[in-house]
Amino acid sequence: MTIRVLVVDDSATMRNALVQLLSAEPDLAIVGLAMDGVEAVEKARALRPDVITMDVNMPRLDGLSAIAAIMRDAPARVLVICSISEDRQLDLSFRAMAAGALELIAKPAAGPEELRKWGRRVAESVRLMAEVPVVRRYRAGAPSTQMHLGAVEVVGIVASTGGPPALAQVLAKVSQLGAPLLIAQHIASGFTAGLSRWLAGVTQLSVSIAHDGELLQPGYVYLAPDGCDLTVDAGGLLRTPRGTALHCPSGNRLLLSLAKHYGSRAAGLVLTGMGDDGAQGLLVLRQTGGQTFAQDEASSIVYGMPQAAFACGAVRQQLALESVPEVLRQLCRNRKA
Question: Which fold has domain 3-130?
């Protein structure tokens, strides 16, 4: 099957580069070009592409507004391609994800070899995005039934495609927690600082990028640094080893460290995402007495990771995204209460 792609960027150089790189792939076809957000919306309506590559900083109508209009009028899978050298563009890119974009890729460094490598990454991302069902917005799952949960000392959360807006939706509804949250969100290198800043702007919790050797603090939200995994050690210290798995940061590595050092005093949650990362780690956590959850199908942008966790018996209960804040409040209440 040929994947039909609409390329949107105000830079003629970037448009031409994307056309040349993606057209070289036999399963990809460029069906249109747009140089600003207004033209992007018009061509999305007329051409109905499978995937749209979208810049965020453009004249007339920026990528954020264009994505919102496209998801309302002609829903498509949107892959944001932006510069990571400017904070404004990084911030816009995460707001674009909240509007419906599925993935972020940084614009390439100079040099023909780097450009070729980057083109292969973009092509592979387009193929992956083409497998994702097109949705206008998060579907509301049925609220989970009332649960009586034991309090824990730490919670690990794993997410991939669709994860940043899901995390933002959850954290926006939580103001105080008696335990730290450790997040393994699959994300391209260069975007972690923007993700941290965006999440910090929607929640009253303290959000930061973890430092190796840092002591866990209740009520803090920790993200893995670029190119690193996030784990804990026996002394309750954060560790940030270099990522070696296919997905970075590794959800399995995070949850396995919680199982090893906390066991029944930990909880794990697998949110929306492609693939199966987190499933085996969550299973081991459950086997060591930890409390384990996964997002339900109705509220997931991509049900792959939660489904894999559920299928292997790792999940105590599936949760609608709307139920996650209350579950976190219960899990992270004062253990002496």
Answer: Rossmann fold (3.40.50)
